[in-house]
Amino acid sequence: MGCIRNRRNCSVFPLFLRLLFIFLGSRGISAQSPVFACDVAKNPDLGNFGFCDSSMEIGDRVADLVKRLTLQEKIGFLVDKAGAVGRLGIPSYEWWSEALHGVSNVGPGTRFTSVVPGATSFPQVILTAASFNTSLFEAIGKVVSTEARAMYNVGLAGLTYWSPNVNIFRDPRWGRGQETPGEDPLLSSKYATGYVRGLQQTDGGDANRLKVAACCKHYTAYDVDAWKGVDRYHFNAKVTKQDMDDTFQPPFKSCVIDGNVASVMCSYNQVNGIPTCADPDLLAGTIRGEWKLNGYIVSDCDSVQVLYNDQHYTKTPEEAAAKSILAGLDLNCGSFLSQHTEAAVKGGNLIESAIDKAITNNFAVLMRLGFFEGDPSKQPYGKLGPKDVCTEQNQELAREAARQGIVLLKNTDGSLPLSTTAIKTVAVIGPNANVTKTMIGNYEGIPCKYTTPLQGLAASVSTLYQPGCLNVGCAGSSLQLDDAKKSASMADATVLIVGADQSVEAESRDRIDLHLPGQQELLITEVANVSKGPVILVIMSGGPMDISFAKADDRIRSILWVGYPGEAGGAAIADVIFGRFNPSGRLPVTWYPQSFADKVPMTNMNMRPDPATGYPGRTYRFYTGDTIYTFGDGLSYTQFNHHLVQAPKRVSIPLEEGHVCHSQSCKSVEVFQSSCENLAFEIHLRVRNAGKMDGSHTIFLFSTPPSVHNSPQKHLLGFEKVFLGSQTEQLVKLQVDVCKDLSVVDELGSRKVALGFHVLHVGSLKHSLSVRI
Ligand SMILES: *[C@@H]1O[C@H](CO)[C@@H](O)[C@H](O)[C@H]1NC(C)=O
Ligand SMILES: *[C@@H]1O[C@H](CO)[C@@H](O)[C@H](O)[C@H]1NC(C)=O
Ligand SMILES: *[C@@H]1O[C@H](CO)[C@@H](O)[C@H](O)[C@H]1NC(C)=O
């Protein structure tokens, strides 16, 4: 999503106008009523319309509505600010709302007033993903949709949310990596499914009924924002069929098939020369055809204008309108389709029935949301209101989510947790030590309240606070080394809180440098050198940082990565530092050294290494070079041991009579041709907490497939998070599906079961499994 050029809430919007709106908006802000159609109570005649009759099938109601509309009226329903049709009792509806990690006011469909001044702000997604806790993903989604419905009921929010962002975090420099669940297709798929299920809550009586509508974006292979003169509006992602099918598409596929999402958003970029929003194979073919999306396909904001204006993909605007609608686009964020679609029809580029198809998809989603059922207060979720937003319980979940995500990367000699009896004063130092807004990242709202790291720590001990430099940019001229060093030399422990914020990594802002910004490294080293007590380094960032200096520095005893931890971030950091919570987060991305960024162009989309050019490949699945930390890294205050209890040594796949593999030596067999379907087995592990502290632990099941078809060096088959009391153990069962988990995607994009030895790993355990026919 972008705020580009002429969009409404761009920062170019003059300040005085914004102030005027705030002033006008603050008058008469008693609770307002939500937007909805078919208000039969007010206008009984509307009861005669089939589309208002909730006893009819949705398909029939939508057909009834579409046939009543003129061409101009239909076109009004192709854009996010959908037109009103007074004669049918349909008010204008704003489709664009956001809820990436809490109800956000980034989209024009949602705002905060004194009726609902804020909403619960959960950690930025990259930190939540680090929890590897699928029930947490769904629990957060449920709270967010409860608050969203509550705000809709008082006229402050929409019903359609363009979240989550499930693009693979392919390159460490990407400014929007913070919004995503990381670099692994399985984790991203599980996150997408969990969060979408939480938001939409179709698990009630009627599976077709949506609490709110979610949207998986940005489809697809979108992860360059602005890097060395290349921007997302012009970028052509050159992607191999193989990378497409085993890296970029899986989160979207799961989102649609397993999450039943009500929408997918196409991106700005081109994929292999075709703008995604005008690609019939990607939209009509894959999303709607193959995956059977039950919902609408929306463009990123102004994508259709971008493919005409910036990419010059079509000669005329009418052609751009026609091409995208014919490719399968249903809704345009922006106004391009409202301006050019009529001319496209009149000029013969587009037939009206293509428009009918698009608005049919849009209306069907609104019907599932209850928009055409009259007074929302009489419907499911109708009783939710301001009292259900920012409840103590919701805010506690925000704190819990941050605790579960925080990753302990280094802890020399059990330096952490700090004991509040031994440690009386803590020097709290660094440009992120007392931040508020930085903690909620982007696509944020207004939080219920903030607990800054300083406030969190100060609740337990006395603190000596020094920012050390003015802001995360940490220019040499803003360094306040002497003050910072003085505090560190006096206190019983030093907590340095540094990292990034939206001035370093953001939408439209990719990084060049993976080091900590400005003079942060100097600040840390100098402070560590004079600290009286143990030094704890806290990195607040979305993307990974090259902190090799700190990893190697013995004076820095402990390192924590806290993402952008949300409104309760400071409380969660303190919970971990003082041992009220045993850290269990694991890195969802590889932390590369700066040399990676020096060598690898961000624009090279290839996941696989290329020995001919020295290109090292990307992510733990393919990259074999040096790392600072790797995917799945994360320590605990206790020790967990794994013991393999049960795993098969061989799996045999039955083949049809006469299959070519019977007569020659095959390295793999096509999944669709083999009988691996329903072939599954379980791996049983005994997991023991051998330490003194209770805690949660994530069990990762990786597999190294036989090296055929440029397969990954290892990939995640499954993960399971368990809570174990000190000195207790549990049997953990991991299910392995032969077709799905032991297959790889070949160079042409077909899924094949690799024959030969697959090495399964759990921690340091390795188990060889022979797959044969
Ligand atoms: C820390 O930040 C909070 C919230 O912005 C502010 O109220 C407080 O004064 C700050 N504390 C210090 C010591 O600067
Ligand atoms: C560390 O402190 C000592 C004095 O205690 C000083 O001599 C040395 O230069 C300092 N080193 C750094 C890297 O600041
Ligand atoms: C996963 O998250 C849920 C919701 O916060 C929590 O109740 C549960 O204990 C977590 N699971 C583990 C193993 O930590």
Describe this structure as you would to a colleague.
It is built from 22 helices and 27 strands. It has 773 residues and is an alpha/beta fold. Among the domains are: 405-599, Rossmann fold (3-Layer(aba) Sandwich); 639-772, Immunoglobulin-like (Sandwich), CATH 2.60.40.10. It has a six-stranded mixed sheet. Strands 18-27-26-21-22 form a five-stranded mixed sheet, with no helix packed on it. The two termini are 48 Å apart. α11 crosses α12 (336-346). 27% of the residues lie in helices and 17% in strands. One 2-acetamido-2-deoxy-beta-D-glucopyranose is lined by residues 133, 135-136, 139, 400, 696, 721-723.
Strand count, sense and barrel status of the largest sheet are: 6 strands, mixed
Instruction: Please report which band the strand proportion falls in: under 5%, 5-15%, 15-25%, 25-35%, 35-45% or over 45%.
Output: 15-25%
Number of helices: 22
CATH architecture title of the domain at 405-599: 3-Layer(aba) Sandwich
Arithmetic mean of pLDDT: 94
CATH topology of the domain at 405-599: Rossmann fold
Low-confidence regions: 3-30
**Residues in helix, %:** 25-40%
